[in-house]
Amino acid sequence: MAGSDPKDNPYLAHHYNGRKGAGPSTPSPSIKEPLSGFRPRKVTGEQVRKALNGDINPFTKQRHTPQYRKILEARKKLPVYAQMDEFLKIFSENQVIVVVGETGSGKTTQIPQFVVYSDLPHTKGKLVACTQPRRVAAMSVAKRVADEMDIQLGRHVGYSIRFEDMTEPGTTFLKYMTDGMLLREAMKDPSLERYSTIILDEAHERTVATDVLMGLLKGVAKRRSDLKIIVMSATLDALKFQNYFSLRSGVSTPLFKVPGRTYPVEVIYTQEPEPDYVEAAIRTVLMIHRAEEEGDVLVFLTGEKEIEDACRKIRLDAEDLINQDSESVGPLVCIPLYSSLPPQQQQRIFDAPPAARSTGGPRGRKVVVSTNIAETSLTIDRIVYVVDPGFSKQKGYIPRIRAESLLVSRISKASAQQRAGRAGRTRPGKCFRLYTEKDFMSEMEEQTCPEILASNLTITVLELVKLGIKDLVRFDYVDAPAPEALTRAIELLYYLGALDNGNLTALGATMAEFPIDPQLSKLLIVSPEFKCSNEMLTITAMMSVPNVWFRPYDQKQQADAAKALLTLPDGDHLTLLNVYNQYKRNIHDKNWTWTHFLSHRALQQAGNVRAQLQRTMERFNIDLLSLSDEKELYTNIRQTLVCGFFMQVAHKGEKGNYLTVKDNQIVVLHPSCGLKPQPKWVLFNEFVLTTGPFIRTVSEVKPEWLLEYAGGYFDISTFPKGETKRALQRIINKKASKSSARVDSGKDDRKAKKK
Ligand code: CDP
Ligand code: MG
Q1: Domain(s) of CATH 1.20.120.1080: residues in the chain
Q2: 379 CA to centre of ligand 1 in angstroms
Q3: Among 109, 344, 425, which is best to mutate for testing ligand 1, by the most ligand atoms less than 8 A from CB?
Q4: Which residue among 378, 467, 521, 707 sits deepest, i.e. has the most Cβ atoms within 10 Å of its Cβ?
């Protein structure tokens, strides 16, 4: 075990593990070592406070900056800070702890720092990890904590999210990371030996990755008595986690409660249900601005487009209001917040509200219109009014037909309570619920559904198998997924060639090394056989980033025209390739993305993703090949797609609508699809239920390819009766008669066949 001896002198150990040789990290003899006398995991609050108040940064050995002192004073006011002694004691005495506390009490920023001071991971060459379900939160909190610790982000404190690693091996000892990243690390190192303490934060969000990590860590904790685990939650779900972790260990898991220091929030319901919640939200914001006292407003809406539209209307209406009555109405700024917003723009939510006009009148007001991000992951100070329409976008998955949905749905009571809580952080506040009290009582679920019950589990199952978990049904889930969701995932992995008799195949093991869906990694692995791996790499990267197209509401026609110029008729996958290639060709033209209604940020991200996937390909000696003949190349690309997405094929039936193969679901091409004319057979990347059963990112395929490259799945004898089966049968018959006619002249010119 690479562990530690608690009697070690941590200062000496730090010297050993730190960079070799002298240099700035060697303190001058006159400076007293700030951590002297600290015994790992036996550190007291008094010791930590003394170190925090000291002149010298114990990790960089530099003198503290004035900014450090200023932030430290703010930290001292957080509820968690007042409980440092109690926390350190519980941390010393227990292996697993569940922490529950109001959003904004300082859990995410302070607890990991307390842990660092007690655990002293740097003295034993280990790390403390703190997971976050959202990328945005991992990045922004790591930045904040680096500032709090007077450290450059990416050195002792860093973050790691998919496709972006902001850490320095050997130096970083506190790492904020997405839960998905930690799960991936567990695949390489199932005991997570690098970590001395793992903190699962925002556990109440119940993402698939956090849920699976809880199951894994419960097992690891039994093998590794030196590993400490902290589960943090903003809601009373905490009791569930406490029971979960207590069950098998036989030792009860303590609950560490951070008392909220919140002010009362008056909750106001509407008398009647609101027919249009966006319109009602806008109206409520203006009513607050006109009639309520000073204080900022937080509005919860469901997505980027809705938020941008609402912000625009709020700004216009506020202007009208001010023009009518500039004496009693102050200035208003309206700021959007959602995850695809660039980081600098996300920072704007922390800006101070506008001042009063120079001519007098009341102070200005800041209105933040946000998705669920602001519910618990990010705390915005000085919010006094919350407008809660009662909806959010929620994931759904129907395993029977493999359809995913992201629908605007009613939030849970627990969510509604969280939202209301945001109004009482600085002084008594008000929460305007745009639904009736009756609906709150009778229509809303108690808790939000855990994601594991509403997700496609293909990648999760592959990860679990890679982790050596054989019995997926009996894995110790916090909430077990539906058996059908597991079966569907196993079936797909089996057809992809990743599993055989419940075991991971060599192909499956390689697939698991890519941080993308198994269907996509399969494409990368087989693409050299079709001599299009270079292009497939681009297409896969483009499918792994957010939508690259802009379509502003007042420039829809121009946007559509710009898109048409880059669209290739054979399929959206080739269009994605074309867009990326054109972007690269015009990389020096600063206006190119802008004039083509493309997101520069998304394309840049695609470039990063591409580079990272390429490194993984190189690691497995997967060649990067290309063909010079464009026609042949485009055909081969679509054939490659069949090798990964054969289960996502639809056939145009006699009535002119598309039916998915085997499941026979009627589907419709998404309006964003550029295929013209509509071909008989199509392959799609996504089947989403939104306003209709849409298939998105679609390309034409030939039925012969299905039989040739996905014969296992397109085994006609197992096909359900129907139009698709008849169509396939015709192809088989035709082929048989052709080949019998050709039998003596025949040199088979088939392409390289996939295994
Ligand atoms: O995790 P929890 O919701 O309990 O609180 P936190 O995220 O640790 O936030 C505690 C305080 O740190 C907030 O109220 C903010 O004042 C501050 N903070 C910040 O200024 N910038 C951030 N990116 C995160 C937190
Ligand atoms: Mg938090």
Answers
A1: 457-644
A2: 6
A3: 109
A4: 521
* Ligand 1 pocket, residue 79 CB under 6 Å: no
Q: Which fold has domain 457-644?
A: Four Helix Bundle (Hemerythrin (Met), subunit A) (1.20.120)
Give the three-class secondary structure for 393: strand
Q: Which CATH superfamily is domain 45-258 in?
A: P-loop containing nucleotide triphosphate hydrolases (3.40.50.300)
Is the CB of 534 inside a 6 Å radius of any atom of ligand 1?
no
Distance 601 CA to ligand 2 centre (A): 27
Fold entry, domain 265-453: Rossmann fold (3.40.50)
User: How far apart (Å, rounded) are the C-alpha atoms in residues 349 and 367?
Assistant: 9
Tell me if ipTM is over 0.90.
yes
Quote the pTM value.
0.87
Instruction: Tell me the ligand closest to 110's alpha carbon.
Output: 1
Residue 471 burial (10 A CB sphere; 0-12, 13-18, 19+): exposed
What is the token pair recorded at 474?
Answer: 């009996």
Q: What is the pLDDT of residues 617-644, one digit of tens each?
A: 999 999 999 999 999 999 999 999 999 9
Q: Is 599 in the pocket of ligand 1 (CB under 6 A)?
A: no
The answer to whether 273 touches 439, Cβ cutoff 8 Å, is yes
Q: Where in the chain is the domain with CATH 3.40.50.300?
A: 45-258, 265-453
Q: Are 538 and 610 in contact (CB under 8 A)?
A: yes
What is the residue type of 711?
A: G
